[in-house]
Write a structure and sequence with these properties.
Elements lengths: L8 E7 L6 H9 L5 E7 L15 E10 L6 E6 L8 H4 L11 E9 H4 L2 H9 L5 H8 L4 E6 L6 H9 L7 E5 L30 H18 L1
Parallel strand pairs: 1-4, 1-5, 5-6, 6-7
Antiparallel strand pairs: 2-3, 3-4
Helix pairs in contact: 1-7
Length: 225
């Protein structure tokens, strides 16, 4: 894992639907496997940490380091999944934690197969859409983009998505392919954090798309500075 440089930025990665492993797969595609590992970050306050973190006053998360430009420009990707601490977005903010590199932006991964399911469409007719992850992301007051997996740029579905969740037309969307579907049991390369991983050599999340998302996130953060 390369040490932090002054030009490095931190990017938080989260899933529009909190219960999937897509962020893990995205990080494995965006960063060399040797640069993805489990790490702990300490609580910085100002108050006592939420109950799930009080015993250690740390949060265990997945930390990946990848480049999106000439060295030494590195992006530090962080993800804390539901298999580690359920409800993390509901219990704290990013500013409550001491990250190795200051958090500069957020990537929200949205899978069309989930968003456009029959159940989701029915619920939208019954009540206004309310996505807790998106609400939490907006509250962080950091630039964010949505990786719209399975959507086509400029399509009516994109316009509907923006309207549905109260997003402005200048919200940055990075459209691309859906992750591959075939999951198999294999050796856990991340010290027990992933219950299921793709066999070595199989790409779960398109690597070119993952790198495009990271580049767009870095550009978004740099523009906001």
């Amino acid at each position: 894992m390369p040490p932090p440089e002054p030009t490095d930025i931190g990017i938080w990665v989260c899933d529009f639907e909190k219960e999937t492993l897509t962020p893990c797969l995205f990080m494995l595609a965006a960063c060399p496997v040797s640069n993805v590992r489990a790490e702990s970050v300490p609580w910085r306050g100002p108050d006592r940490p939420p109950k799930p973190f009080r015993s250690s006053e740390t949060a265990s998360l997945l930390h990946g380091v990848g480049g999106s430009g000439p060295s030494p420009h590195h992006n530090h990707l962080h993800f804390l999944g539901p298999m580690m601490v359920p409800g993390f977005p509901l219990t704290s903010k990013l500013t409550n934690w001491e990250f190795p590199v200051a958090m500069g932006g957020i990537v929200v991964l949205l899978d069309k197969r989930i968003e456009e399911t029959w159940g989701h469409r029915v619920l939208r007719r019954i009540r206004p859409p309310n996505n807790p992850t998106l609400t939490w992301v907006k509250a962080q007051r950091l630039p964010f983009l949505i990786a719209a997996m399975g959507y086509e740029p400029g399509s009516p579905e994109i316009e509907s998505l923006l309207t549905r969740y109260g997003l402005t037309s200048d919200t940055q969307l990075v459209c691309g392919p859906l992750p591959e579907k075939e999951l198999v049991r294999g050796r856990d390369m991340l010290g027990g954090l992933l219950p299921e991983v793709f066999k070595p050599g199989r790409v779960s999340f398109d690597q070119i798309y993952a790198q495009r998302i990271v580049r767009a996130a870095r550009e978004l953060v740099e523009h906001a500075r």
